[in-house]
């Protein structure tokens, strides 16, 4: 970041290639994103847009990055306004628009936008997941976990946080749909590995999201003491920004279920207070798809959980 800031200071001192100037600003913005500094990131992207001018090829990834930044800080309305001012004919801004539709629960609109992405020119934003991840999530949130799995298996790659979180969600959803505890066991192992790998993650919200998944899966397999530890780690790693595919609203819902089931009344009360500042509407429905009846009433003070995992399922999961 120091080197990029120093290089950016030279941009006004002579003739500098416009592509290079935009690239320096974009990279500086991405560094600030990794440091969970949205204000500085926004300024860097704005500086890049000044250099880009009316060149859509240069401006589109920056517009998409700004819209995604708004999503990551919980300002969907600002993200939509930013995208509405762009042409939305290139892949980066279309992916950002699809992400916004998906986050708001508009799955059909997300799907049509993703189809338009296939024919659109330009690369995706540095902050965006592969479009196949979003297609997989569309299928998942429409209650089609088997199709989500096929999409994931077709193009999924290792060592990509978007793919790994999608894999966790697909496994959770398939356990709910089939009752087969093998999926629960696979999800638990995946979450445990990803939690260790993301201890020093540079993607904002990734570690908190992973810990929330792990906490729920530990709860579903009866390991309540370990689940509370994972929940505390998730809370401790929540920053200003979150992943649009698993935002603060989803993390808080997961953790509320964990604390309620573990009898951690004070923690549960504090989590409920935090949800008052989040848009929880579509996430309440989604949580049942990936958690089952246990997700019911997680956001109700003293709410009783739904059906617990059977002893046989618990035994199989532990095996």
List the helices and strands and how they pair.
Blueprint (H helix, E strand, L loop, with lengths): L1 H8 L8 H17 L3 H15 L3 H17 L3 H9 L6 H13 L3 H13 L11 H11 L3 H11 L5 H18 L2 H17 L8 H15 L3 H13 L11 H15 L2 H11 L5 H11 L19 H8 L1
Helix pairs in contact: 1-2, 2-3, 2-4, 3-4, 4-5, 4-6, 5-6, 6-7, 6-8, 7-8, 8-9, 8-10, 9-10, 10-11, 10-12, 10-16, 11-12, 11-17, 12-13, 12-14, 13-14, 14-15
Q: Quick one: biggest sheet? A: none
Shape: globular
- Report mean pLDDT, rounded to a whole number: 89
The helix-and-strand class reads mainly alpha
- Strand segment count: 0
Radius of gyration: 20 Å
The first-to-last residue Cα distance is 47 Å
Task: Walk me through the structure.
The chain has 319 residues and is mainly alpha-helical. The protein is built from 17 helices and no strands. It has helices at 2-9, 18-34, 38-52, 56-72, 76-84, 91-103, 107-119, 131-141, 145-155, 161-178, 181-197, 206-220, 224-236, 248-262, 265-275, 281-291, 311-318. The longest helix is centred in the middle third of the chain and has 18 residues, at 161-178. Residues 307-319 have low confidence and may be disordered.
